[in-house]
Write a structure and sequence with these properties.
about 150 residues, mainly alpha, about 0% strand, 4 helices
Length: about 150
């Protein structure tokens, strides 16, 4: 009598990558949107060049800090989703602490209007966090390869 062969158990949390291309595309779209919004606000409210430059500088600093903290995680490397969520939360904590420091550094280094730098940076930071959350959440909520679909 032959013994039945055991089916190897499936890994409940197989390693996956995050959608790096989608993250980069999202940040490109955010920067394009910021340029369009700032241009429209400049036209509507007759902002000075200093104010416009301050809002743009603050926004770019915020986008760069958020994107750098995401790329530091190396989203192209496969990891279990449980590990991704821990890394993402740690990365978010670090960027929440470091982005204001970067914004104040830009303000003191350039002497652009402080309100413009901080408001531009804050608006861009929250837009980036919201967009990043949507992209990451879609990746996390997808069924893992080889698992039954959640329909």
């Amino acid at each position: 009598m032959t013994e039945p062969t055991a089916i190897p158990p499936r890994d409940p949390d197989p390693p996956r990558t995050l959608p790096t291309g989608q993250i980069l595309t999202t940040f490109g779209a955010l920067i394009t949107l910021q340029v369009a919004v700032v241009w429209g606000l400049q036209q509507a409210f007759a902002w000075t060049a200093q104010t416009t430059n301050g809002v743009m500088a603050g926004g770019i600093v915020a986008y760069v800090s958020v994107l750098a903290s995401i790329l530091a995680l190396q989203p192209w490397k496969p990891r279990p989703m449980a590990m991704w969520t821990i890394l993402w939360m740690g990365s978010t904590t670090i960027r929440v602490l470091l982005t204001p420091v970067a914004l104040f550094s830009v303000y003191f280094a350039t002497l652009l209007p402080g309100t413009a730098v901080l408001l531009g940076g804050t608006a861009a930071f929250f837009a980036a966090i919201a967009a990043e959350t949507v992209v990451i959440a879609r990746a996390v909520l997808q069924p893992s390869p080889g698992s039954p679909s959640r329909r």
